[in-house]
């Protein structure tokens, strides 16, 4: 017997057939066609290697094997129904759900405290895990269920993913305060000056577009230092002649805390788009819908 060959509908048909002992009545009760129920019975007989129901005196009488299976199959169906009811009646105030979110560090910087504040009031037992941005592994993680949401950008997302663009920003350059009298960097100055970046995969798609823009004019950015956090990056820029590129929103935050200047990047750089991605499999789950709405609301509040 290979139970993997049985689906939920077939088990539901089994219970209805045992109850009604008639294919037509079982089909009507389930809202299915008679051929569908007959096909399910055929499949069940093959899997359990037993006739299960035998025609006798105008009805279908369950075999002893069928009667012994009825209790176990009904228990399986009850557990599945309980899971569905639990999800349908999701209450964040009492839920102990855990969600994982992958996003760039600058998004986490703004989003994490806002989510934490919401959880304190609305969902004290829900746990959130932020994961390092890694676009190359994100889809597999979403597909396997080890990741619930990704914030970032995929030019061509997998068809199994749902997508919603949440905000747009622009890339800018950071330099030490009073590093240069001229506010506008020349292309040659921007290319040749040493740059500090977040280590891969944290630097993500945003810095890739800068490299691509440089390659289009036959140049290569002078990446001299990679660091682990945005605060290390900010400190390096504020105390040296290094340049760094990041989105304008985090650049403004850095400028409020470090002696740095914000300058335009002298290359043709596209805007930064941050979208929310989640798997089709979780789209209709009440808990995921709640978490998705929370993320959307808080991102829109800071964008």
Task: Provide key terms for this protein.
303 residues, five-stranded mixed beta sheet, three-stranded antiparallel beta sheet, elongated, alpha/beta
Helix content: 40-55%
**Large-scale geometry:** elongated
**Topology as a string of helices (H) and strands (E):** HHHEEHEHEHEEEHEHEHEHEEH
Report the average pLDDT across residues: 87
Provide the structure class: alpha/beta
Report the oligomer. Answer: single chain
Strand order of the largest sheet: 4-3-5-12-6
Describe this structure in words.
It is built from 11 helices and 12 strands. It has 303 residues and is α/β, with parallel strands linked by helices. β1 (53-56) and β2 form a beta hairpin.
Entry summary:
With 303 residues, the chain is α/β, with parallel strands linked by helices.
Give the topology.
Layout: H1 8-20, H2 23-30, H3 34-48, E1 53-56, E2 59-62, H4 64-88, E3 98-103, H5 105-122, E4 127-132, H6 135-144, E5 149-152, E6 161-169, E7 171-176, H7 187-192, E8 195-198, H8 204-216, E9 223-227, H9 230-239, E10 244-247, H10 248-255, E11 260-263, E12 272-279, H11 286-302
Parallel strand pairs: 3-4, 3-5, 8-9
Antiparallel strand pairs: 1-2, 5-12, 6-12, 7-10, 7-11
Helix pairs in contact: 1-2, 1-3, 1-4, 2-3, 5-11
